[in-house]
Write a structure and sequence with these properties.
Four Helix Bundle (Hemerythrin (Met), subunit A), 64% helix, globular
């Protein structure tokens, strides 16, 4: 596992999320961005303000996940599912470097969270 590359990816996620948050907060009217498309799609029925709020929430959640992943990297526990302790497949980490859980536990987590769109 190339931790340096994954760390660079995570730092990129943090920067992009912060840029998204700043851009959304700065502009009242929508400029579309390459932002968390699932959240944007789910929010399509919301009013404009609710939609932007949902996008800010999604960006903040992603930023937090990336920062937590960087903290796990520093602690030496990166890449291990926080729920069951199994190694998260490298392909999953490359696709989603901020992943804190294996796929099965992530699905359970999202069912419980309900309102958290991603
Ligand atoms: Zn797990």
């Amino acid at each position: 596992m190339d931790l340096d590359a994954l760390r660079a990816d995570l730092e990129q996620v943090v920067r992009e999320s912060e840029a998204t948050i700043v851009a959304l907060n700065a502009e009242e009217t929508d400029e579309d961005g390459d932002i968390v498309e699932d959240a944007a799609a789910e929010a399509a029925d919301f009013t404009e303000n609710d939609r932007e709020e949902a996008m800010v929430d999604a960006a903040e959640a992603r930023r937090t996940e990336a920062l937590e992943a960087l903290a796990r990297m520093d602690a030496g526990s990166y890449g291990v599912c926080v729920e069951c302790g199994t190694q998260i497949p490298e392909a999953r980490l490359e696709f989603r470097p901020e992943a804190a859980r294996c796929v099965a536990d992530q699905e359970k987590f999202e069912e419980n969270e309900g309102q958290l769109s991603r």
